[in-house]
Amino acid sequence: MFFGRILSQGHGTWRSLVARTLGVREVAGSNPVVPTISKHLRLPTLAAVFALQVFVKTKAMSSRNTVGAGTPEAQLRSFIDKFAPADQSLIRAVRAAVRKRMPNANELVWDNYNFFVIGYSPTERPSDSILSIAARANAVALYFLHGASLPDPKHLLLGSGKQVRSIRLESAEKLSHPDVEALIAAAIDQAKVRMPSKGGRKLIIRSVAVKQRPRRK
Predict the structure, then answer these.
(1) What pLDDT, on a 0 to 100 scale, did the predictor assign at position 9?
(2) Could you point out which of 3, 122, 153, 211 has its C-alpha 20 to 30 Å from the C-alpha of 62?
């Protein structure tokens, strides 16, 4: 069991955290917390283990990725505000251009360790995303999630993997260049899930990494 592995592997921090949270003392042994907690709560041992298992799993997940309070738009602003002023302006300009081009797409946001990402999807599923904006310090790019299959006679797309391609963006105006617009149109046309012709879009914060690379240099 997950809880048993955590305890038996000697994770003292978790033992102490669980004990402090439930207001019980920590005792020595290979499975130290369960008997004491079970007696303290007057629950069967298995019920106590299950409750602790859920607690530890939840704490482990929240230590990796958290979604903060506030409206999604307010959270998005705070993510962009971490960047240098020039990068902030570029990210916002690119976002406005993509939103105008794909007015009914949902925006799926990740503020991850390496990159800040906004994906554009006809559904709420990341796997259905067609384009995404990705930014790190001093760099903003437009990613085509299935770019490897797009016609690219001008060789604008960067990358050599089996699926994803990208274009570096020095300005939002690059998105309106005929060759780039042709790539965007082809990506939308080739999408397995069609973009809805109407309907309100959603801004969804998917995850926020606790630790992140600096967004400014």
Answers:
(1) 42
(2) 122
